[in-house]
Amino acid sequence: MTGRFMTQDPIGLAGGENFYRFAPNAQAWVDPLGLARFCTRRLQGFPFSTDLDKNFRGGLDLGLFHEQIFFDDGTNIGYTTTGTFSEESMKGYKCSSTHFDDNVMKKAVENVKSRKIKKYKLSKEMVAEKEVFQFGNEQYNGALNNCQDFATEVEKEYYKLEGGNG
To answer: Tens digit of pLDDT per residue, the chain (166 long)?
Structure first.
């Protein structure tokens, strides 16, 4: 099915050369305000995991799904055992209906990525302290510091930057 907007696409050239063309899949590629969204997919290798639950934001962050943040410019970010990463495509993701301002969300992501925490190591009667990135490559933990924790911290930071309390 081919469709055309009656007026120019509000995102301009970011949507392609034809300002009046619909997205190839208008049901899955809807981003009416051009804003960031939290999206989820099933865990790879876990066929019985879930994807988007309408109430997935917040809580204990122990859902059986992967969570990623997608922006209107096509970029995205998530957190896994190798640190932060981007997906090649949105295939398999379902997104929340809540939209967030891209610029504020990207600032929130950078703030969270740059957060450091103190780690302590015991050795012969000594305690060594060092600072590491909270969401660095070695800090991933499936139960205590996972993709959902990263997304939740980004959302909290977003609301701090916005001046609200979420």
So the answer is: 455 555 555 554 455 555 555 555 555 555 455 589 999 998 888 877 776 555 556 666 777 889 999 998 889 999 999 999 999 999 989 888 888 999 999 999 999 999 999 988 888 888 888 899 999 888 898 888 999 999 999 999 999 999 865 5
Task: Choose among 120, 146, 141: nearest CA to 131.
Answer: 120
Taking Cα atoms as reference points, which of 40, 53, 29 lies closest to residue 151? 40
What are the contacts of 87-90 at 24+ separation with CB within 8 A? 90/28, 90/39
Pairing of strands 116-123, 83-85: unpaired
Q: Tokens in use for 85? A: 């990463």
Pair of tokens at residue 115: 């957060």
